[in-house]
Amino acid sequence: MNPICLSKMTAKDQFIHICNLTTTVAGLRKGSLSSKSRKLEFQIPRMVASVIARKEEGIHQTVIAEVLKRDRSLIYHYEKKHNDHYAWEKYRDIFNKVYMTYHQIEN
């Protein structure tokens, strides 16, 4: 994967990059995080991408919600429940993989 300078990107571009990274790591099709599916294979990576965008880049909930085609309140929910979800092995595994890959690219 080519390194991308995130500092010159808009918040929306940064989040799209995080979504693309998440789908690659999770083995999903590019753009699948914005699908309306509630299957866990899409829902967990969607949560992970949202939490990383909020905690690492400070991307506003409205930007994340716009890209994911979801309501802004859902992004607040993902952020609030992150610690509870992290105790769940499936979520934790995907979160750790995406988080480590994200930091490798950023560094």
Kindly describe this structure:
With 107 residues, this protein is mainly α. The protein has 6 helices and no strands. 29% of the residues are buried.
* Rg, nearest Å: 13 Å
Order of helices and strands: HHHHHH
Shape: globular
From the structure provided, what is the oligomeric state, counting identical versus distinct chains? Answer: single chain
Describe the main β-sheet briefly: none
Mean pLDDT: 92
End-to-end Cα distance: 13 Å
pLDDT < 50 runs, ≥5 residues: none
State the total count of DSSP E strands: 0
Outline the secondary-structure elements.
Elements (H helix, E strand, L loop, with lengths): L10 H16 L13 H18 L3 H8 L3 H9 L1 H5 L2 H18 L1
Q: Short summary of the structure?
A:
The protein is mainly alpha-helical.
Keywords:
single chain, 107 residues, mainly alpha
